[in-house]
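Example S7 (structure tokens).
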């Protein structure tokens, strides 16, 4: 059973940066596609960025050029570097694994509990 734990969320002013981490256990991050999703109050959960097992990457248009997804297979950890943050980036951010790059038509199999990111103007 895969277990995902996010960390690194917090409050930041617009234009600032944060780095989220997702520690995986119960499996190797090299085995599955992995992704970051987010959900803002009153909105549907949306895919932000994902990385496939062949290392290809997909970003949502809203974060291209600002966010960078990466993973460390040796540490079984997924990262999301978020730069030039905007108030509209405020959301709960979730780590997800397995079938993680096929949003919105397919939802991942495994999810973390989330970490809150708040961006003030």
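Recovered sequence:
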């Amino acid at each position: 059973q895969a277990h995902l734990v996010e960390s690194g969320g917090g409050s930041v002013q617009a234009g600032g940066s944060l780095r989220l981490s997702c520690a995986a256990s119960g499996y190797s991050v090299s085995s599955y596609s992995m992704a970051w999703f987010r959900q803002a109050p009153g909105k549907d959960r949306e895919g932000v960025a994902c990385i496939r097992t062949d290392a290809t990457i997909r970003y949502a248009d809203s974060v291209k050029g600002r966010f960078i997804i990466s993973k460390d297979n040796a540490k079984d950890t997924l990262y999301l570097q978020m730069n030039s943050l905007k108030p509209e980036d405020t959301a709960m951010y979730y780590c997800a694994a397995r079938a993680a790059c096929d949003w919105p038509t397919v939802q991942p199999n495994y999810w973390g509990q989330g970490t809150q990111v708040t961006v003030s103007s």
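Notes on this example. The radius of gyration is 13 Å.
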